[in-house]
Design brief:
single chain, alpha+beta, Aminopeptidase
Length: 153
């Protein structure tokens, strides 16, 4: 059985595999960039308490299979529009390639965000596991490219 939903950070931090999945995400995305990722769980908790951070999860047969982290709020360019900015998304390698879990997780998140009043989503692709066709299948349109550089080294 697959279950999707918002999950409080405190609950996730008590999950047996959340920290492992989060670390696998950071390693996959940032591992060879020179950036050392040390998650700031306290900052995330403060953001969640202020309703500007939420985590959407996918559980398969009771096991956490994936997550999408969103930062919520208007932007300085669109102060009257509530945005959801994808801070990170990950499906555990154990659950990848087994049907449409990722698609269903994103679609369900989109519906839940809309119910919260979100009117725009900004999501990022991962060059190590490109998702352009996937995001296009969700009806998203590319509007730019993120670039990365570690400075001062």
């Amino acid at each position: 059985m697959t279950r999707f939903g918002w999950e409080p950070l405190k609950t996730l931090l008590a999950e047996p595999n959340f920290r492992d999945i989060a670390q696998a995400y950071y390693d996959e995305l940032w591992g060879d960039t020179g950036v050392v990722c040390v998650p700031d769980w306290d900052k995330r908790q403060a953001m969640e308490d202020a309703f500007c951070y939420r985590i959407w999860t996918a559980h398969v047969d009771g096991t956490l299979a994936g997550f999408i982290e969103f930062q919520l709020g208007p932007t300085v360019n669109a102060r009257d529009t509530l945005f959801a900015v994808d801070l990170g998304h990950f499906i555990s390698p154990t659950f990848r390639g087994k049907g449409v879990l990722g698609y269903r997780m994103w679609r369900a998140a989109e519906r839940a965000l809309e119910e919260m009043g979100v009117r725009a989503m900004l999501c990022h692709d991962n060059m190590k596991h490109p998702l352009m066709p996937f995001f296009l299948s969700l009806g998203m349109k590319p509007i730019g490219t993120l670039f990365h550089k570690v400075i001062g080294q």
